Amino acid sequence: MQGRTSLQRRYTFTSESVSEGHPDKVADFIADSILDAHVAQDPEARVACEVLCKESHCVIAGEITSGATVDPAAVARRAIEEIGYLDATEPFNAGSVTILPFLSQQAAEIAQGVRRIGAERLEQGAGDQGIMFGYATDETPEMMPLPILLAHRLSRMLADHRRNGEAWLRPDAKTQVSVVYEEGRPVEVVDVLVSTQHRREVAREDILAFVRGRLAPDALGAWWHDDIRVTVNPTGSFVHGGPSADCGVTGRKIIVDTYGGMGRHGGGAFSGKDPSKVDRSGAYFCRYVARQVVKQGFARRAEIQVAYAIGVAQPVSVKVDTFDTGDDCAAAEFVRGFDFRPAAIIERLDLLRPIYRLTTNYGHFGKPGLPWEA
């Protein structure tokens, strides 16, 4: 059962990542770009933005109540250009994609539960009901599970190579890393899988040589060894990709965004949501608290769960699990000292800023510079 794998003597755990050019991540990045554009002008903006990308169309839908002046189509086009979809011969490209906005204001019944001013500000209610989780482990300096950390490095470095000389690479890619654990600790990487979009004339053997000779050793660092099984583009080629080939939708990479399956997930996506939505801010704060539990030595692994009712500030419940790696009672007592009210989270983590484009790609956790990683 997930959550008790530390009791198994030996097992292999696999996590995947995707690049910023993956269709779902394109949708996430557009949504977060629109969010940041509003928050930059109006920190109290209420944004719930969903995006769908397919072939020559990009659909933007949702609810936005904001004092900002934002052209969603222009923001989306700039985001697509920044990702790297510039090829005019492809249906999905920044220059000619048709952008269709379907946006209305936040429902009044929700707004009345999440708007508080003055002395009542800290009683701002949760923007929705639901459960959120945060996870931390001491197995890496980033307090992230090793499989997802390495998978993200592979994806991010693919994008770096694409922008810095490897012109045959294209934006769409997926990576996967398998790690052997013994007694709950990572001991060896055994498999690396890279599927990357590429120019038509590039041979699979050349891509394999690049991945095995440069990309994987750099990304894995001390975890690299010559006996790792490296698989590249297992179907043979990957020329037609991105939204030109596949539909991308906001919020479909929630495991990639979090812990690669190592920790639980409450089901709510992050991108396109302002911090009044506890799907996002609650999950960020749970990660922050889980990190503190591990840093303070209460456990080697920790997971925090919080639950909310819409329009209510105080959480329904807060729970900590140390997976038999520490003292649950002491950890629970420590966690009681944290204020999980949405407005208190927003204040503590300083979330009313345009920081959300920084979170979209290569995981929302384990990256320096984000306030919940402090």
Q: In a nutshell, what does this entry contain?
A:
With 374 residues, the chain is of the alpha+beta class. It is built from 9 helices and 11 strands. The chain has helices at 23-41, 72-83, 108-114, 146-163, 204-220, 254-257, 278-295, 328-335, 342-349; strands at residues 10-18, 46-54, 57-65, 98-104, 130-137, 169-182, 185-198, 229-232, 248-249, 301-308, 317-321.
Structure description:
This protein is of the alpha+beta class. The protein is built from nine helices and eleven strands. It has helices at residues 23-41, 72-83, 108-114, 146-163, 204-220, 254-257, 278-295, 328-335, 342-349, and strands spanning 10-18, 46-54, 57-65, 98-104, 130-137, 169-182, 185-198, 229-232, 248-249, 301-308, 317-321. The protein has a four-stranded mixed beta sheet, covered by helices on one side. A four-stranded mixed beta sheet has the order 4-3-2-9, with helices on one face. Strand 2 and strand 3 form a beta hairpin. The two termini are 31 Å apart. Residues 1-6 have low confidence and may be disordered.
Q: Classify the helix fraction into a percent range.
A: 25-40%
Strand-pairing-aware structural class: alpha+beta
Number of helices: 9
Give me the strand/helix succession: EHEEHEHEHEEHEEHHEEHH
**For the report, how would you describe the main beta sheet?**
4 strands, mixed
Which stretches are poorly predicted, pLDDT < 50 over at least 5 residues?
Answer: 1-6
β-strand percent reads 15-25%
- How far apart the termini lie comes to 31 Å
DSSP strand count: 11
Order of strands, main sheet, comes to 1-6-7-8
Average pLDDT score: 94
What general outline do the C-alpha atoms trace?
A: flat
Radius of gyration: 21 Å
